[in-house]
Write a structure and sequence with these properties.
By secondary structure, the protein is an alpha/beta fold. The chain is built from ten helices and 13 strands.
């Protein structure tokens, strides 16, 4: 049986491929676009532009997967402000091509559509912790695109009976994360300061917001459990179920540094709109699959910092 991962060279995609290789008997196929993967030789890789519907149709006809994990997307909320339409257009277009190709080829693969806890957006205090019944009120272009992907996945289940399961992961961190994300941005700056590549100072934006952080390796394990056991048409949160202020996250990373580092506010790192707190309720996924995070935050941060030390050193 084949599992197809779009975005296999990305942060979550690479960890998911490793998990499937280590814990299942699936033949893993991965789609690459403009990026390389360290997994060549262990998985079947295909270079493809998923924005081209003909390319996607040929891909599905060739692979004929039993499972599809759709992770390919613009994934950075902060970058989505620079080009909102590109984020919305690309994220929707690629997923539409994929679902349409599965329907046309009559491949009844179980599909996991990856939304985001960020799509809940402007939650009210009485909505916390956030269950899957809380309305989506996206407040940035990235969150809007993920809400649209979520609904598009449901529409293909409702209209075509395609077995689509939807996941709404909250913030995830760990090795290989891009410095476009807050924890990795901190880790890179610390690693560069330790190596003498920059002044011993770290540039920060809003430190008061609180977010729900889970190790990426726990999240991808949740993806597999949801795609195997999730009810088609349903949606499931994945998160740690606890909120931590960005300032606390930073302080924990700074405590792991080998040198003293000062903190400097950077107005350029502030977002036009920020939600004070996002924290998940994952009872639905837990009751169905038994999933819960296993990797402590301290290990996630230590592994992330060690990854960036390696990147800076190399």
């Amino acid at each position: 049986m084949r599992a197809l991962i779009t975005g296999v060279a990305g942060f979550a995609g690479s960890h998911l491929a490793e998990y499937l290789l280590d814990h299942t008997d699936l033949e893993v196929w991965g789609v690459l676009h403009r990026r390389e993967t360290h997994l060549r030789g262990r998985i079947h890789t295909i270079s493809a532009d998923l924005s081209d519907p003909e390319v996607v149709t040929r891909l599905i006809q060739e692979c004929r997967p039993a499972y599809v994990f759709h992770l390919a997307a613009h994934a950075t909320p902060s970058a989505s402000w620079a080009n909102p339409w590109q984020t919305i257009h690309d994220n929707l277009r690629v997923q539409f091509n994929l679902l349409e190709a599965l329907v046309k080829a009559q491949v009844p693969a179980r599909v996991l559509v990856i939304g985001s806890g960020d799509a809940y957006g402007l939650v009210k205090p009485q909505d916390l912790p956030i269950t899957e019944d809380v309305p989506l009120r996206p407040n940035n272009p990235y969150a809007l695109s993920k809400a649209a992907q979520d609904l598009l996945g449901f529409q293909y289940f409702a209209t075509h009976r395609l077995p689509v399961v939807r996941a709404r992961p909250f913030n995830h961190i760990g090795p290989r994360q891009s410095d476009a994300f807050v924890a990795a941005a901190f880790a890179r700056q610390i690693a560069e300061a330790e190596a003498g590549r920059r002044e011993p100072a770290i540039q920060v934006g809003n430190l008061s917001t609180q977010r729900d952080f889970t190790d990426v390796r726990d999240i991808v394990r949740g993806y597999w459990l949801l795609l195997r056991h999730g009810v088609p048409g349903e949606v499931y949160n994945l998160g740690s179920e606890r909120a931590i202020a960005i300032e606390q996250l930073l302080n924990r990373l700074l405590s792991m540094s080998s040198i003293p580092i000062r903190v400097e506010p950077d107005p350029a790192r502030l977002r036009p709109s920020d939600v004070p707190i996002l924290v998940s309720n994952c009872q639905k996924a837990r009751q169905l699959t038994g999933w819960r995070p296993e990797i402590p935050l301290e290990r996630s941060l230590a592994d992330l910092l060690d990854y960036w030390r390696g990147q800076v050193r190399d």
